[in-house]
Amino acid sequence: MTKIDATAKESLVKLERNVRTEISDLKLNLKRKSEKKNSAKQKLKRSSSESKLRYNESVSTDLTNSGLFKSKSYRLIDDNSLIKTYLKNQTPIRLYNSVPAQHMPPLHITNQDEVKKKFIDHKIPPVLKFKADERSLQNILSKHSKTNYEHFFKAKNILDTVKLKYPNLINYYEANFGQKITSIKCVDLIGKYLSENKISGDLTISFAPGLTCSGRITSYMVNKNDPSTRKFSIWINDGEENQFLRKDGIISLCDHEIGTHYFRSYNDGLQIWFNERKKFGLRPTNSTDLLQTEEGLAALNTLVNANLKYLFLPALLYYMACMADRMTFEQLYNHMENYIEIPEERWKLVTRVKRGISDPYKIGSYSRDQSYFHGAIDILQNLDNVDFMTLMSGKICLDECDRIKRIARTNSIKIPKFMKNMQSYKEKLRTIGIINGIIEPRPNEKFKKGTIVFEKNPGELKQNESKNPKELFGKNFKDSSLTSIEIKRYINREIVSKTKNTVEHRPEVTDNNSSLCIII
Q1: How confident is the model at residue 442 (pLDDT cuts 50, 70, 90)?
Q2: Helix (H) or strand (E) holding 116
Q3: CB–CB of 244/384 below 8 Å?
Q4: Alpha carbon of 352 to those of 30, 316, 452: distances in Å?
Q5: Where is the composition biased (Basic residues) (predicted)?
Q6: d(C-alpha 369, C-alpha 314), whole Å
Q7: Backbone angles phi and psi of 297, in degrees to 5
Q8: 179 Ramachandran zone, left/alpha/beta (phi>0; psi -120 to 50)
Q9: Would you list the DSSP string of 335-353?
Q10: Are 319 and 369 in contact (CB under 8 A)?
Q11: Quick count: other Cβ atoms within 10 Å of Cβ 425?
């Protein structure tokens, strides 16, 4: 072989090597592109069978045309994987067949379907089983076993008012929250809500049937010493029993969960007291007082954009806890038919206030849910003195605002859109207070079409001042403030009356010192 032939052969070998390298690089690039294209699908996979995302071939790609995905981050939705995609700025959406075990609370009922069918169909008293063991149940119940009766008649008056105006509970839900919608439509509305509040991408949104509530916010920290590593999720019960899965109801639920719980929790991580609450004299995050402020504010925010302003659901839970404290499971279920004619809805609420109580013949209640109504009343009665910017700065109680105000970082906190105009927000809360008989109207206030109207005519003002607020607002009920013992006696008489199946004249309970009542 000549020198020229050897050189040519070497050149061919080098060329062959370069071609092979280019082919390998091309294959690798194609593989990477394919992996990138399916990255959303891979990220959303779960190994646990309980966490498998639901598959629905019947859903069309109409969702891709919704306003939710009309952005630079627009992604086509795969028909075969439905919500395995991302919202604007890659907010994950997940649908689950059931609540994953790690997200079940200790009081999650594990045999609900079995005992529910037996009770509703055959009236067999349910023996409820819970995720927590007996010892844990006792610890939980000991903290929330004391029932509050202070606002019993306030709650009852609200229930009676709603029943008078809306004899059918479904009519009330439709009037307040609109028509039922699918989980797919909820995705669109929640996405717009996140975008309007400038928090797109801050939360993971998960739908799962069987939650013990309509929705809840959860969070965890990647680094316990770094609040910026917190990850938030909103869980929504997409079962048929969730009455917030409606056109307007989903916004009210977002105002409750995101507009209150998420924002206060996020802002708390910006404060110097985040890991040192005791040092700054703040109550623990699991205290009853903080629970009342947190849920009371959330209950009020639920109504800010609602069509009706009645504190019906908080009042219902408060009233049921009072009655459950004196009734067995079956007695309470039968008694509440007066307000909740839908068996499934009644079952859901009765099991909620009887959480942790396995024996169906035992009286007692899980009184934690009284915090919604109790906390809302505390805020409304102190409305003129509440600094809502400080209250939203973190997880703090109502009576801690004044003390913590000087050190709270309010310049960098996030607040929901409905709080941007604080004067308008307070006027809406005042309207809620007057409608529910919690705040006494001023002489210059009239109530028209769900809003407060301030009179400008001095002559009419003077005329209104001489009127009793009851006459001015057309009130029908009186608020009553009795002692806990007197209220328990009243409830006992109700139980005896129902048990004997006789119609007795209910004792008229009045309070001469109060002219407040509910506006219909």
Answers
A1: confident
A2: helix 112-122
A3: no
A4: 54, 12, 35
A5: 32-46
A6: 8
A7: -65, -40
A8: beta
A9: HGGGT---HHHHHHHHHHH
A10: no
A11: 18
Q: What angle do CA 430, 179, 94 make, to 5 degrees?
A: 95
What is the C-alpha separation between 390 and 380, in angstroms, rounded?
16
> 344 has which bridge partners?
none
Residue 119 burial by CB count (10 A; 0-12/13-18/19+): exposed, middle or buried?
buried
Classify the phi-psi angles of 502: left when phi > 0, otherwise alpha if psi is within -120 to 50, otherwise beta: beta
Note whether 283 and 399 are within 8 A (CB): no
For the chain, give the percent of residues with pLDDT over 90: 52
Q: Are 436 and 311 in contact (CB under 8 A)?
A: yes
Cα–Cα distances in angstroms (integers) from residue 397 to residues 140, 276, 389, 420, in the given order? 22, 16, 13, 21
184 CB contacts (<8 Å, ≥6 apart)? 59, 63, 82, 83
Residue type at position 320: M
CA atoms within 13 A on the CB side of 79: 6
Q: Is 184 helix (H, G, I), strand (E, B) or coil?
A: helix
* Distance from the Cα of residue 354 to its chain's centroid: 19
| Residue 83 within a domain | no
Q: Which of 254, 300, 270 is nearest to 428 (CA)?
A: 300
pLDDT at 17 over 80: no
In the chain, the N- to C-terminal Cα span, in Å, equals 109
Q: What is the residue range of 176's domain?
A: 112-473
Contacts of 471 (CB under 8 A, 6+ apart): none
Nearest to 296 by CA among 175, 165, 416, 391: 391
Tell me the pLDDT band of 268, cut-offs 50, 70 and 90. very high
Q: Mean pLDDT across the stretch 449-465?
A: 47
Q: Provide the angle, in degrees to the nearest 10, between the axes of the packed helices 288-304 and 371-381.
A: 80
Cα gap 44→312, rounded to integer Å: 38
The pLDDT score that the predictor gives to residue 444 is: 72
How far apart are alpha carbons 240 and 246 in whole angstroms?
A: 11
Pairing of strands 230-236, 203-207: parallel
318 located within any domain? yes
Residues 6+ apart with CB under 8 A from 88: 68, 69, 71, 73, 191, 194, 195, 200, 201
How many domains are there within the chain? Answer: 1
At residue 371, does pLDDT exceed 90? yes
Residue of 446 and 76 predicted with greater confidence: 446
Which segments of 262-410 are extended strands (E)? none
- Is residue 374 assigned to a domain? yes
Confidence of residue 377 (pLDDT cuts 50, 70, 90): very high
Query: Which pTM was predicted?
Result: 0.77
Nearest to 429 by CA among 388, 468, 462, 397: 388
Cα–Cα nearest to 393, from 270, 237, 224: 270
Q: Please name every residue paired with 218 in a beta bridge, in sequence order, or none if there are none.
A: 233
